Amino acid sequence: MTQHTPAPVTAVTTDTAVTTDTAAPSAAPAGVTGGDPGIRLTEVDGVRTLLAAGSGEITAGLVFRVGAADETYATSGITHLVEHLALFRHGVSDLHYNGATATTYTIFHATGTADEVVTYLNGVCEALRDLPLERLETEREILRTEAAGRTYGPNHQLPLWRYGAQGYGLVSYTELGAWHLTADAVRDWAATRFTRDNAVLWITSDTVPDGLRLDLPSGPRHPMPPVTSALPVTPAYISGEDGGVVMDGIVRRSSAASLFAEVLGRALYTDLRQKGGYSYATAGHYSPRDADFATITAYADALPQKQDAVVGGFVDVLARLRAGRIEQAELDAARNKALKQFDQPDAHAASLPSYALNLLVDHPNSTKDEYRAGLAAVTVDDLRDVARELHSTALLEVPGRGADWAGFTEAPQFSPETDRLTGTRHQSHDDKSAVLTVATEGVSFSRPAGVITIRYDQCAAMVAHPDGGRRLTGLDGFQIAVEPTLYAGLTPDRIAAIDAGVPASAVVRAPERAPERIPQPRPASGTAARRTRTSAWRRVPAPFLKLGVNAAYVVTLFFGLRAVTLTWTVEPRPGTAFVVLHWLLLGGSLALTQVLRTALATRETPG
Predict the structure, then answer these.
(1) Is 479 left (phi over 0), alpha (psi -120 to 50) or beta?
(2) What pLDDT is stored for residue 242 in this prediction?
């Protein structure tokens, strides 16, 4: 059994992601980020700190450069566990506070009075130094409950197909680490990732509140996760479920790219909703991925009967923008919307989360004037270039018939044929053409259409059940379920060979499964069962079966009339047992009639 669509995304994103970009600024005066006098850079206990005055209560965010993409599939969820444990001691409070684990960062934020924010931040740092690990088992269950109730966006599958079961692709997977990580592993992760050197603090205040103590351990600044790829060719497409079309692509960070995302969203709305009436919701979104590149995501929903029209309209919009057929008014509308954020009275304070994230990934921050100049310099030709860059890296998820006709290549459904392994072969009980091969270097699953291979040294995680079931996931995102109940000759020694090959760091010990959760071979199909039961009737000549059916009709009619007559006879009244007997004989004759009719139909059906 194979699949390339594991459980959906579990990482949480916040609303503080950077949405605009500009070119690198000139040298900044000391203590000022990017030369902007409205935002001041200082330090608190070795933690880089950004300050900008805002109105109302104080809001602060302590951001660490660690997220889901820094984990492995086998340890996924460890950052989320640390976040939950760090917030446990705050309990129920009137203070508005929370934490979130995203792809490349984790944030703890709060809004309140200066004293409340100081108490919160000091408490978070204290908890990170001394996690309440007696809560570990409870927090595991909370994480599972949280995942079970979470809703997922339409693009939740794209990261795993683009990046595989590693790095940036892990946001599409379940948090396997929550099943098995030890207290020591969680403690070590907090001590090495949640450090003063790997953090940035921002506060909507022009001064550091009194009493703030960020007592965090020292540690190295961690670089961004390496970028991996599971797509040999782009633009590519995958087949998705009914409901809409979604696409993402990777572009260089720039003002032009951020404006293009807005232009794309508006164009989809105009063509697919206002003109075509095919979609209700459309969107275009720009999100920085690292210091140099960003992800542009576009979406349009669709009813099942409108899917082909939406796919066609979606592709047409991309083609128009790629050809440079962009109205100046489209660019101006996007630019004016981006500039409005600086008309707010607390514009500098609102920019703090973006500035902090840029500091974490070593991307230059810009002043307000540099930002405006960058937007003003964007031309229609710049948007065309972004459209072409987006298309060249695009991954499109479409329902139905695919997108080969539009120049997109289907993402790999199988491993290269050269990856087929040689070892012991185990035929599937359900599908005689399916074979599982257990070799010294890995496991293969093959069907006539292709082969899936996971080599042990490329295994992202192996979930191991006490009953012998194993589920291997490769770094490329492919999965193979190894179930002794489903394959011939898959004895404990063959399972032991797999266990010996997979690195211990990739093994996830799962709890015991209930008997009904252990996969079993499928029963014979209804057609096969019927043919088995009725095969004896094929030896009876059809004329005799027809005669039997007619005779059964006569008998049924006789007993039917007798049963009704006896039931309503008043004098002389028949015995109750005698009446019941006739009703039973009527039921039997009805059953015999149905059996003979089915037998005749089977007898006259070929095969």
Answers:
(1) beta
(2) 78
Please report, for residues 5, 300, 397, 465, 515, the alpha-carbon distance to residue 273 in angstroms, rounded to integers and kept in the order given.
Answer: 30, 9, 19, 49, 50
C-alpha 470, offset from chain centre: 22
Paired tokens of 529 = 């069962």
Could you tell me which of 231, 247, 245 has the C-alpha nearest to residue 396? 247
How far, in Å, CA of 70 to CA of 167, rounded?
6
Q: For position 322, what pLDDT does the model report?
A: 97
pLDDT of residue 97: 84
pLDDT of residue 417: 87
Cα(10)–Cα(175) distance, integer angstroms = 7
Report the candidate in 602, 607, 606 with the shortest Cα–Cα distance to residue 540: 602
Q: What is the pLDDT of residue 555?
A: 64
Q: Under DSSP, is residue 226 helix (H, G, I), strand (E, B) or coil?
A: coil
Q: Quick one: pLDDT at residue 468?
A: 96
Q: Tell me if 276 sits within 8 A of 282, measured CB to CB.
A: no
Torsion sign over Cα 45, 49, 51, 56? negative
pLDDT of residue 541: 59
Amino acid 553: pLDDT: 58
Give the C-alpha separation, 536 to 454, whole Å. 48
Residues β-bridged to residue 247: 298, 396
**CA angle, 74 as apex, 73 and 75 as ends, to 5°?**
90
Residue-level pLDDT at 166: 98
Beta strands, E only, 255-306: 282-288, 293-301
How far apart are the C-alpha atoms of 11 and 175, rounded to whole Å?
A: 9
Residue spans of beta strands (DSSP E) within 344-394: none
* pLDDT per position as a tens digit, 228-287: 999 999 999 999 887 899 999 999 999 999 999 999 999 999 999 999 999 999 999 999
| Residues of the chain below pLDDT 70 | 1-36, 91-94, 524-587, 589-590, 592-607
**Could you please report the per-residue DSSP string of 451-517?**
EEEEEGGGEEEEEE-TTS-EEEEETTS-EEEE-TTTBTT--HHHHHHHHHHS-GGGEEEPPPPPGGG
- Determine the pLDDT at residue 597: 62
Return the CA Rg of the chain.
33
Taking each helix axis from N to C terminus, what angle separates 114-129 and 78-87, rounded to the nearest 10 degrees? 130
Contacts of range 441-449, beta carbons closer than 8 Å, 24 or more positions apart? 441/501, 442/501, 443/472, 443/480, 443/482, 443/498, 444/415, 444/419, 444/420, 444/480, 445/1, 445/2, 445/480, 446/420, 449/413, 449/414
| C-beta separation of 380 from 328 below 8 A | yes
